[in-house]
Amino acid sequence: MARTYRKSALELYKDLRRDFMEGRYKPIYLLYGDESYLSDQLQEILITRALPPEDRDFNLDVVHGADVNIQAALNMCQMAPMMAERRVVVIRGFEQLKGNKLFARVARQPNPAAVVLLICKARPKFNVNPYLALKKNQKAVQVVEFAPLWRNQAAGFVREYAQTRGYDLEGGVQNLLVEFLGTGMALLAREIEKLITYVGDRESKLITRQDALQASGQTREINVFELQDAIIQRRAVDAHRITEQLLLGASSRQGEALRIVAVLSSYFVKLLRLHDSLRDNLRPADLAKRIGVAPNMMRRYHEAARNWSFPEVQRALQLLLSTDSEIKGLSKRSPRLVMTLFITRLLAEPLQPHAR
Q1: Tens digit of pLDDT for each residue in 331-343?
Q2: How far apart are CA 310 and CA 105, in angstroms?
Q3: What is Dmax (Cα atoms) for the chain?
């Protein structure tokens, strides 16, 4: 049986954005999930498109569930618009609205002259009201989960976001930013805005890898990915030198050390997945997807897996975990000393591979 295709958070967002831009609204939307950036964007688009500025004083309510009582929230949603076509109600933190189970009656009989946007952080319990009633009324209610993006999806978002601002990215820059910052869309969008400010009115409108490195305070020779390569190739002297220069050049040594640990942890997790997946005889594209890297990066990961056995990768992740805890305050050592000891321990005599 063929698997049902499940749209990504970004695709779901684009569908809703298109509806809002074209003036197609359902009475109620329930948005939830960790990727709050998309909910924030849709809230802004909904208000801008559904209500002219002159109608907002009397026909727009934006509240937080922790700051409003249930009866006031119900009244907002059931009220008729004043001298306007519709009203818009946004309830953020809807899960924090005390007594929100009473909202089930609004879910069953929505106000046709209102557009209600409910935003939750956590996944709702759809087996109890009001979420059960919201889920059941599919004709009037749209329920959308905005789950975190996969790395390849986040890289695509970075490129698209830059293009909407009139800029192109040199090949690989989007992957570099995802490696630096993770898949959080708000953070990635802010980084693109920072890079646009950094490159200024450059005629080519091209953001290069060097721009991304320099804007983050690093250089082509001294950056966390050069450190990563030095570690994978067991070049201990270079690894110590690069780590030292990264920390000395940082405005916060603790923050820089934590960022180094985060990037290296992400890399070794991918190596662990690669070791686990090699025996499954997957196609190269499927293997890349499982690991979470671009297909054109697989050759380098295979080389790293040959240099680092499965038990060594496990040990590296254990060291990274303890190093992270030390940097965050479980040790009186300075971040500089903690990182020096980490590199020394990590690049000690290689472990002998053994059968798993």
Answers
A1: 788 999 999 999 9
A2: 56
A3: 77
Q: How many degrees, rounded to 5, is the angle at CA 323 between CA 321 and CA 327?
A: 120
| Residues 296-337 pLDDT 10s | 788 889 999 999 999 999 999 999 999 999 998 877 889 999
| Helix or strand holding residue 115 (H, E) | strand 114-120
Q: How far apart are alpha carbons 87 and 67 in whole angstroms?
A: 20
Alpha helices in 168-223 (DSSP H): 173-181, 185-199, 209-215
Judged by DSSP in three states, 354 sits in: coil
Report the predicted TM-score, pTM, of the whole model to 2 decimal places.
Answer: 0.66
CATH 1.10.340.30 fits 151-215, yes or no: no
Residues 6+ apart with CB under 8 A from 303: 232
Domain boundaries, the chain: 9-145, 151-215, 224-346
C-alpha radius of gyration, the chain, whole number: 25
Crossing angle for the helix pair 253-277 and 173-181, nearest 10 degrees? 110
What is the crossing angle of helices 253-277 and 224-232, to 10°? 50
Q: In the beta sheet, which residues pair with residue 61?
A: 89
Enter the tokens of residue 19: 């509806």
CATH topology of domain 9-145: Rossmann fold (3.40.50)
From the CB of residue 41, how many other CB atoms can be counted at a distance below 10 Å?
Answer: 16
What confidence tens digit (pLDDT) does each residue in 196-251 have? 988 887 788 899 888 887 776 555 455 788 899 999 999 999 999 889 888 877 77
- Return the CATH number of the domain spanning residue range 224-346: 1.20.272.10
What's the CA gap between 277 and 320, in Å, rounded? 22
> What percentage of the chain reaches a pLDDT higher than 70?
95
Please report which helix (H) or strand (E) contains residue 135, including its range: helix 131-136
Question: What distance lies between CA 30 and its chain's CA centroid?
Answer: 20
Q: How far apart are CA 64 and CA 18, in angstroms?
A: 26
**Which residues, in sequence order, are bridge partners of residue 87?**
114
